[in-house]
Amino acid sequence: MSGRITAVSRNEAYSFSKPNHASITLLAGLGVEGDVHAGETIRHQFRMTYEPDLPNLRQVHLMHEELFDELALKGFEVSAGRLGENITTRGVDLLGLPTGALLHLGEQAVIEVTGLRNPCSKINDFRKGLLAEVFALDPVSGEFVFKCGVMAVVRRGGTVRPDDSVRVELPPLPHRPLERV
Questions:
Q1: Which fold does the domain 2-166 belong to in CATH?
Q2: Calpha distance 109→156 (Å, rounded)
Q3: How many C-beta atoms surround the C-beta of residue 13 within 10 A?
């Protein structure tokens, strides 16, 4: 499975959306250089208050651009960085990846997928009614499907840009499905 990066985003301050940039630099074990969520320990604003020493499994947030296409059909205009992701992709089934999948980004960077983004109520503050659209109920299992992308940690740093390739390397079997982190 391979695809490409369509946008890269970061923000030095806590804010729901992240502005797009021409490139971002990934730092091994930390995340996106200059992004408020970079660090070895958890940087999620709410979770820092009660779990400040946990490892940061949310160093990089990736979202599939195909979600924006789906949301547009339902009347929601959303573009890269607006839902807080650092890397927007096209052509990669992010939600179908197993835990531990490695994503090779561009020429150097490698990130490891740690889990699903847990959508929060701030999505409704951004666009009223949008939170309900980023969940789906699986008709077979009856479980919720979370569509707001995946989280990852940086294993090998490097600079990534729009139009860089994304190559997926699956972990050894048996694969573990993604859970919320």
A1: M1 Pyruvate Kinase; Domain 3 (2.40.33)
A2: 5
A3: 7
Q: CA dist 181 to 3, 42, 153, 175, 178, Å?
A: 24, 11, 12, 17, 9
Is residue 73 helix, strand or coil? helix
Instruction: State pTM to two decimals.
Output: 0.94
Classify the phi-psi angles of 157: left when phi > 0, otherwise alpha if psi is within -120 to 50, otherwise beta.
beta
The predicted-structure confidence for 6-34, as pLDDT tens digits, reads as follows: 999 999 999 989 999 999 999 999 999 99
Burial class (CB in 10 A: 0-12, 13-18, 19+), 74: exposed
d(CA 164, CA 79): 18
Q: Tell me the pLDDT tens digit for each residue of 125-168.
A: 899 999 999 988 888 888 888 999 999 999 999 999 999 999 99
Q: How many Å from the N-terminal Cα to the C-terminal Cα in the chain? A: 24
